[in-house]
Amino acid sequence: MNYYNLKDKKETADFRTATIRGQGKDKGLFFPEHIPQFAPEWIESLHERSNEEIAFRCMEDFVGNEIPPDLLRTIVSETLSFEIPLKKISESIYSLELFHGPTLAFKDVGAGFMSRCLSYFLKDQDRTVTVLVATSGDTGGAVAHGFYRIPGIHVVILYPKNKVSKVQEKQLTTLGENITPLEVNGSFDDCQNLVKQAFADREISSGLFLTSANSINPARWLPQQIYYLLALKQWRATEQDLPVICVPSGNLGNICAGLLAYKRGLPAEHFIAACNANDSISRYLKTRQMVPHATEATLSNAMDVGNPSNFVRISELFNNRFEKLKDILSGYTVDDETTLRTIRKIYAEHDYLLDPHSAVAYAALEEYLAERPGKKGFILGTAHPVKFPEAIEKAIHTGTAIPESLKSLMDKEKKSLEIQPDFTELKRFLLNKINR
Ligand SMILES: *Cc1c(COP(=O)(O)O)cnc(C)c1O
Prior knowledge:
The chain is of the alpha/beta class. The chain has 20 helices and 14 strands.
């Protein structure tokens, strides 16, 4: 499989090159040259197949010859080494719990797959690769965990000071070794801008081999299709009709992977992009206008993205035909107050604790289903509620039980370097690394 640059279709790359470089020239995103189809019989037989088998079949066409099949099997099986159950919450709503991985967020799957591919591709390189990533909360932890102690890879994470939860911060700042957290005295937008400037800087890129680990990287974006197949496998055990699939959305990588799976033949009734106040996709679906805006801080911080990168991939998937996209995708906006109310209500009525991101999705799906009696669906449960004790406490006025694994994490010492949102400071730090 080859990938073309959405900004210049003449530039193509195989899976290996696309993964190592992360993005094409002029910051263009890579997109698969064709959309491989699932055989209908295979889709019908999902319940007979193991998760590893499903994941392997899902990914093999995209990887092509770049990774030997046996190794790809090992990679997907290690990536999926935790359970991903579909739990029934209410009469019509289920949650695919994607938060039982090492950092309790769904990004563990994409980051785990990508880090394993990248370390295979780089094993014979004598240069160190620097993974430079900006995080609004969850990306940093998943990426840090995925690359921790991998030889030849150094990870530099920029996160906004005081804007990530305590658990998220500890996940970023307590590993040490090849993981360096930079605490930026600014917003997530500042972090992202600093990263973009670093990628564009000749002096930095001539000295450091830089790559990204956001969902713009195909190796992080594509494995997210697997969630939807694993959900369908379990859905069919109890439900006859097609599911409405609701995805808490920020940078739109996850929902774009779901729509890609749909284009390949995954059956679904409808998709919903559930947003917090950062809702450019919801507004686009109503007005046809994509108007990016400055990021607004909300309780579901991993979705605080004003200018979602993967929008261009969604458009491409539907050949830039708005009406076609609108037939299958709706957008909903859920404010913080509704998020808290939803957490409280679902805890009281169903004894199920949603994290703020999953709560945004729940509220959106509930609203959609209210107008369509008889239909049912599932949300993607993207984070464990214990990662967001501040928000949970606000919603239900008591704390939540903290698992043992988190307790020891919270006792570890935070080690990070504070910088101002000023490119010269980041540049000095990165160039120092070269000269060391
Ligand atoms: C990253 C993240 C999202 C948003 O996913 P996108 O692919 O960026 O749309 C939603 N929920 C949680 C918990 C996340 O970490």
